[in-house]
Amino acid sequence: MQTVWLHKTTYKWMGLIVGIIILLLSVAASILFGVHNTSWRQVLEAFTSYNGSTEHIIVREVRVPRALIAAFVGGSLGICGVMLQSLTKNPLADSGIFGLNAGASLFVVASFVLFGVSSLASFTWIAFLGAGVSCLFVFILGSAGRQGLTPLKITLAGAAITAFCSSMTNGMLIISGRAMEEVLFWMSGSVEGRSLDILLSLLPYMLAAWLIALLISSSINTLMLGDDVAKSLGQRTVLLKLTMGLLIVVLAGSSVAVAGPIGFLGLVIPHIARTVVGKDIRWLIPYSAILGGILLLLADIAARFIAMPREIPIGVMTAIIGVPFFIHAARKGLLKK
Length: 337
Hints:
This protein has 337 residues and is an all-alpha fold. The chain has helices at residues 9-32, 40-48, 54-88, 100-115, 120-143, 151-176, 181-187, 196-215, 217-223, 227-232, 237-259, 265-277, 281-305, 314-336. The longest helix has 35 residues, at 54-88. The radius of gyration is 20 Å and the shape is globular.
């Protein structure tokens, strides 16, 4: 039986408030600390009496966009992980494992090699489209056959799409032979150098997906009891699954579009949230959003100091955290069997 830290509703609300405070402190730390440390006074003056100094430019153009992007992308990937693992009933489900990141990368590289697109702003919508198309193919392949959508079929479909997109992407990168610094920068997965405009253009979709996920959380709880039970209670399971699939596309697609393919966060965060509040989706969603934001912010801060004065991509940091967790989760599942 899984250990759960917070059982009572009162404790869960208190934990949520504490989590929000830690998230805000993480945002503040992300703005203040880096190669060039800044003070609270400089941060306030950057917005109240901007004078064009290096410190003010760093705060307004680099630190604040970076902190907000990490918070929202981390939150979206956390909720996306809950949706994916609930829909597929697979505790190892993640947007990277299910081919969404690989599909987005394939579309970005293809747009560069075939059409000469080379700006990060253009990559945003191309990556969003790529994640959506790959997710659509995964669901079509996973739903084919008499039994319809099953956890095993959709997992195999995700693995197949990932392998196909990765092979095509690597092939184009090798054949092209052109300088593609922007593409490689995007593919490394990072919140560094991303404009706030990129986040603002996709933020309405992210927030709408967060809200809808909360609204359907009770229905997902019922669905987790099994399709037959859900149908006997009058639930339209096909419509609910399609809605969850659409939310996964929006959350994963917008996150990949803003920050590049960041793996393992959607895998790790739902497991941590389940340890804190249990399996109730109504609590898992807000906790996963907050924990996802905190983890990505802390990973980004750590990425600035490990190889100073250079920075390592945040995608590398999440992989360092996620790979051991993936092995642990897989081993735990095998031991249960």
